[in-house]
UniProtKB/TrEMBL annotation, chain A:
UniProt keyword terms in alphabetical order: Coiled coil, Repeat, Transducer, WD repeat
Family statement: Belongs to the WD repeat G protein beta family.
Gene3D superfamilies: YVTN repeat-like/Quinoprotein amine dehydrogenase
Name by which UniProt lists this protein: Guanine nucleotide-binding protein G(I)/G(S)/G(T) subunit beta-3-like
Coiled-coil positions: 4-31
UniProt cross-references to InterPro entries, sorted A to Z: G-protein_beta_1-5 (IPR016346), WD40/YVTN_repeat-like_dom_sf (IPR015943), WD40_G-protein_beta-like (IPR001632), WD40_PAC1 (IPR020472), WD40_repeat_CS (IPR019775), WD40_repeat_dom_sf (IPR036322), WD40_rpt (IPR001680)
WD repeats: 51-95, 142-182, 183-224, 225-266, 311-343
PROSITE patterns linked: WD_REPEATS_1, WD_REPEATS_2, WD_REPEATS_REGION
CDD domains: WD40 (cd00200)
Gene Ontology biological process terms from the UniProt entry: signal transduction
From TrEMBL, chain B:
InterPro entries per record: G-protein_gamma, G-protein_gamma-like_dom, GGL_sf
Protein family: Belongs to the G protein gamma family.
Residue ranges occupied by any G protein gamma domain in the UniProt entry: 6-75
Claim: Protease is one of the keywords in the record: no
Organism: Salmo salar (Atlantic salmon)
SMART domains attached to this UniProt entry: G_gamma, GGL
Lineage: Eukaryota, Metazoa, Chordata, Craniata, Vertebrata
PROSITE patterns assigned: G_PROTEIN_GAMMA
The name this protein goes by in its record: Guanine nucleotide-binding protein subunit gamma
Cited function: Guanine nucleotide-binding proteins (G proteins) are involved as a modulator or transducer in various transmembrane signaling systems. The beta and gamma chains are required for the GTPase activity, for replacement of GDP by GTP, and for G protein-effector interaction.
Main localization of the protein described in the UniProt heading: membrane
Any one GO biological process: G protein-coupled receptor signaling pathway
Keywords: Cell membrane, Lipoprotein, Membrane, Transducer
UniProt keyword Transcription regulation present: no
A GO molecular-function descriptor: G-protein beta-subunit binding
Amino acid sequence: MGEMEELRKEADNLKDQITEARKVVQDTTLQEAVAGTTLVGRVQLKTRKTLRGHLAKIYAMHWGTDTNCSKLCVSASQDGKLIVWDTLTTNKVSAIPLKSSWVMTCAYAPSGNMVACGGLDNMCSIYNLKGKDGNVKVMRELAAHTGYLSCCRFLSDSEIITSSGDCTCVLWDIETGTEKTIFAGHLGDCMSLAVSPDFKMFISGACDFTAKLWDIREASCRQTFSGHESDINAIGFFPNGNAVITGSDDATCKLYDLRADQELITYQDSGIMCGVTSLAPSLSGRLLLAGYDDFNVNIWDMLKAERVGVLAGHDNRVSCIGVSSDGMACCTGSWDSFLKIWN
Amino acid sequence: MPGVINMDELTDVDKAKMERDQKKIEVKLERWMTSKCCTEFMEAVQAGVEEDTLVKGIAEDKNPFKELKGGCVVC
């Protein structure tokens, strides 16, 4: 038997063992476990603010988390701008022109001191919002990926994690502008990443239909979650960090428990046939807000896996969604060039 | 700095080895019973739901995003 065949056979054997081990611990399903709970009441959110200013499709948005900026958010558009918004007043705190307009992601540092973005330039550019003369300038350009930058998330002012179309994720030292760790293992473009609440792990979703849990300091992949039948475009942690939520081109979202190492439930409806572009859980995790290609956001009861609301208000695809860190509002960004704040 | 991994440069055999080695790690994982996970999941949700604005709603006068009264908005 050739080396390839042997390796494949070994891997398949191990995969079968993993499938068995997962079955052994499956003594109930979430559906059975929640049978006695009541469906959450119908959720009807209203648009409270519309953020107008971008001139082209919005691809990404991210809320600030620090108490000084919990009502600030940053958005990225293919009009070549990053805009930092005060969502209470709808004022633009900063409008940052980008070298490359082909931006696909943006992030707000937990401290509120920096924002980052990247896209088809294969780079992650870091901007200092608190420069001495008040001007926002590029601080670092992190270049090493050989594919587009799909997502980035700060761990702190000195470290950021990126995911790329080159199938890898990278942990960067912002100060030196170099790669500290390369996380390889996905067999398809990495589309999205999310950092655990304790900043020790991160998860990535990819075009190989899997999600991977990575240990940042050990530089290793701990777990791989399968089940989706197409690309995973969006990923997030359940608020307590013990579960992962994924959204896919297969029109479903899935909840995977990290300790059981398996899917607990799928959020799907025969009436929904288009891909999931973005997702965010509400503060308690009771609700899952997911953006779809059909211009809507569906709101799911995460326990009962039933739709309990819809956010309809955009005139094009909802490309990004986020819930503020205090859970008071959700923000949607769309290809129609607007961001909306709902609660 | 760790070696730059360019996925394009990995051979099929390299990728198959990575996959096999990764599964060797994953097979050893200690897994919890799903009943325990489901119970904890439900408890975590119930614990936070009263403070969850998007679930519970918010009174107009307490909503920081309410309409700003007075003045005019120039778009």
